[in-house]
Fold this sequence. Notes:
By secondary structure, the protein is an alpha/beta fold. It has helices at residues 2-25, 59-71, 85-90, 105-110, 138-141, 155-162, 175-183, 194-203, 230-245, 248-256, and strands at residues 36-41, 44-45, 49-52, 55-57, 74-79, 96-102, 112-113, 118-120, 122-127, 148-151, 169-172, 189-193, 209-212, 219-225.
Amino acid sequence: MKKTLFLLIGCCLLLIGCIATHTENNPAGQGPRQPVLRVGISTDARPMAFHDRGRISGLEADFARGLAEYTHRKLVFIEIPWSEQIPALLAGKTDIIMSAMTVTRARDYQISFSKPYMVTGQIALVRLRDVGKFGDGLTDLLSPVIKVGTVKATTGDLLILRNKAKGTVLHFKDADHGVQALLDRTIDAFVYDLPMNFYLGAKYADKGLVPVTVPLSREYLAWGIRKNDRQLLLAANGYLKNLHDSDKLQQMIIYWVPFYQSVYNSR
């Protein structure tokens, strides 16, 4: 009898818990639950996406909030390591990748891309005393006497691999480790995306690090969407068109990447 009573109490508690969770997400009297926009984001790439006082901030975060408002969806950020972004999207864990993703042919086979929102590229971060060694851009980086660092599986990593650097190439799990290797003189140059290396140059200027403002490539940043989600693709492109037509797109980029216009003409 006691065993049966405990089972009944347990079932009731479980039911109450389920109802409480459902009510929190869909309060009584407010109609159907608002559709969700699940944004895959990697928050280790200032100024594009990062944590700031408990809040996800950066250019991509601002874009995500704007897209959620444009599509009348509730925004949910899903933080994912960079290397897992596309697998998570394809597995249906996210709806869109908004994480400074470069459009490449290999990625285009797997996912669809929105219209590009930013022209960018790879640049090198170096020690100030060595900046004169890298005036010729990629040619200098491929020299057999230069030790180059990249973040593994990024566009910068592929750039150095594709061009067959003759010197030592070290792969790091994130930008912080790459910068530390540069400070420790383990490498001579750290190749990374333009916005991030500009930010890192400003952050570590007092320690003698500077970005080389000679682009190593010309690339395009866009948002990744599953190939069968044409509705979201059209919505993302519509949102971008609104930003572009109102000149807000340029304003948002310059706010987060102040030196952007000095390197690329984004129009």
